[in-house]
Design brief:
The complex is a heterodimer of chains A (248) and B (80). Chain A has 248 residues and is α/β, with parallel strands linked by helices. Chain A is built from 6 helices and 7 strands, in the order βαβαβαβαβαβαβ. Classes of the chains: A alpha/beta (248), B mainly alpha (80).
Chain lengths: 248, 80
């Protein structure tokens, strides 16, 4: 039987954690001993399954419904998570994301706004909320899930690219602002990861990936687990690509 | 509804500022934040403490006007 992880002095919130990359991150952080808030918008069953799996493996988790684009939701998520585990939130993973692909001449205002709201503005509001207790505790880890598309063009995703590149610049700026308080803020930029979100995309694109294979949600989760770990205390403002070499 | 005294606020502000680094003996009403090496992030944190404890919301523009410890205490007391 595996050695049990250390008891953590705080809880972790993972947005968009009912499936895919977010679910893998939630499971991974729970395995590292973090009590985890599994946020979801519509994937109630998925979030419930993630919580059940974590509990089965001896971890602690709670499903937290809430659309992160709603400005009142960050407060609700933090309050529910903190009161449930009676611990401050010390880890925030801004993972919730949507895409609405279209070539720029055809991109609608709605497609633009939806993607920016979810991928960028929600991450800002959650980060702002998270920093309050983190500044007080002189400790905290924020990991923003960006995308290789924020670093390298991908036709049809100008809205997603703008949001994900914005998230990288946001990450770097906040990292510098709060570094002297022992809080780290980093971004992970996944490339081609096998999830529901990428299931529709042509497999021909895999030829562009130097590793010649898609990544798994666990590949991304491993990077997040590292950035959240004590060992990564001096890593801040970084963008960790996990893309089989795609952006290299 | 003002139930806090100037002295109480001053004591709390001094305590908070001391937690950001300067020696408590240096934190007088006339001391400037610049002299105390209290930076903008420290003031954001002070604003958070003030909001939590006194329900006084200090916005970014309020904080920019503050030069001395006394300025901060007076502003908080006037709004508490």
């Amino acid at each position: 039987m595996a050695e049990s992880p250390p008891a953590r002095p705080g809880a972790a919130l993972v947005t968009g954690a009912s499936r895919g990359i977010g679910a893998a991150i939630a499971r991974g952080l729970a395995a590292d001993g973090w009590p985890v808030g599994v946020n979801y918008r519509s994937g109630r069953d998925g979030a419930g399954a993630v919580v059940a799996e974590i509990e089965r493996d001896g971890g602690r988790a709670i499903a937290l419904p809430g659309d992160v684009t709603d400005p009142v939701v960050p407060d609700q998520l933090f309050e529910r998570l903190e009161s449930h585990f009676e611990l401050p939130v010390q880890v925030l993973v801004n993972n919730a994301g949507v895409s609405a692909d279209n070539l720029s001449p055809s991109l609608t205002d709605e497609e633009w706004a939806t993607v920016l709201d979810t991928n960028l503005t929600a991450a800002f509001r959650l980060t702002r909320r998270a920093l309050k207790p983190m500044l007080k505790q002189r400790a905290g880890r924020i990991v923003n899930i960006s995308s290789v598309v924020g670093l390298r063009a991908n036709p049809g995703q100008s809205n997603y690219a703008a949001a994900k590149a914005g998230l990288i610049s946001f990450t770097k700026t906040v990292a510098v602002e709060v570094a002297r308080r022992g809080i780290t803020v980093n971004a992970v930029a996944p490339g081609w990861i096998e999830t529901d979100m990428t299931a529709e995309v042509s497999k021909d694109l895999l030829a562009a990936v130097p590793a010649r294979r898609a990544g798994t949600p666990e590949d991304v989760a491993a990077c997040v687990r590292f950035l959240v770990s004590d060992q990564a205390g001096y890593v801040t403002g970084a963008v960790l690509t996990v893309d089989g070499g795609l952006a290299a | 509804m003002s139930t806090v005294t100037n002295e109480q606020v001053e004591a709390r502000v001094v305590e908070a500022l001391a937690s950001f680094g300067p020696d408590p003996s240096q934190i007088t009403r006339d001391a400037t934040f610049e002299e105390l090496d209290i930076d903008s992030l420290d003031l954001v944190e002070l604003a958070q403490i003030v909001e939590d404890e006194y329900g006084v919301v200090l916005k970014g523009e309020d904080m920019k006007e503050l030069k001395t410890v006394g300025d901060a205490v007076d502003l908080i007391v006037s709004r508490a």
